[in-house]
Amino acid sequence: MSQSEPTRERIIGAVVRIMGADGAAAVTNRRIATEAGISLGTLTYHFSTQRDLVEAGMAAFVAAETVKFTQLADRAAAGEIDLAQAGEILGGIVTDTDFGGDHLAWFELFVQAARYPALHAATAEFFDIYDRLAVSILRALGVADAESAAPLAVATLIGLQLRRLASGGSPDQVVGGMAGLVAAFGEQSMPPHSPA
């Protein structure tokens, strides 16, 4: 956190970090103010309700993810990612700790969106960017129907991460699972081997 960063952005960054580390229930005015290095009065000047804070935090989270995964999708489309890197990238996405807490913010987004329809658009955008990244990677691997396979890859990725977080597993389980899935997609796209 930089003191030169505008106050509103510092507040939103604090919300996302807190949600990622400890969930939406941990988003209290006092904790946000401490994390952002501001007074409680300054916080309430910028955001009058907790719901406004959560919505702004989730929108910021999705925006940051969009930038990151658009860049990865561009690399995949340019052929800069091979089969081994694809599985590693897809698995590593959910263990990135930019937002703290091994991306608990992902699951907070889902839970909050179920409660607040105003977050549906942000959640749809979240899935769209992951689908676009998966399509780019699967196309680069030569998967014939990457558009149909992408939602399956994204759902598998999210499911593996939820399982890991809920059971206390290792990030390597997610990376390994995604590497296996990408390898299976890659094998399906290979032309059949004819005996010599």
| Distance linking N and C termini | 62 Å
Number of strands: 0
Q: DSSP helix count?
A: 9
Run of helices and strands: HHHHHHHHH
Average of per-residue pLDDT values:
78
Poorly predicted sequence stretches spanning 5 or more consecutive residues: 97-102, 190-196
Most strands sheet: none
Strand content: under 5%
Q: What does this protein structure show overall?
A:
This protein is mostly helical and 196 residues long. It has nine helices and no strands. The protein has helices at 7-22, 29-36, 40-46, 50-77, 83-93, 104-115, 120-140, 146-167, 171-189. The longest helix has 28 residues, at 50-77. The protein is elongated. The model is unreliable at 97-102 and 190-196 (pLDDT under 50).
Brief overview:
With 196 residues, the chain is mainly alpha-helical.
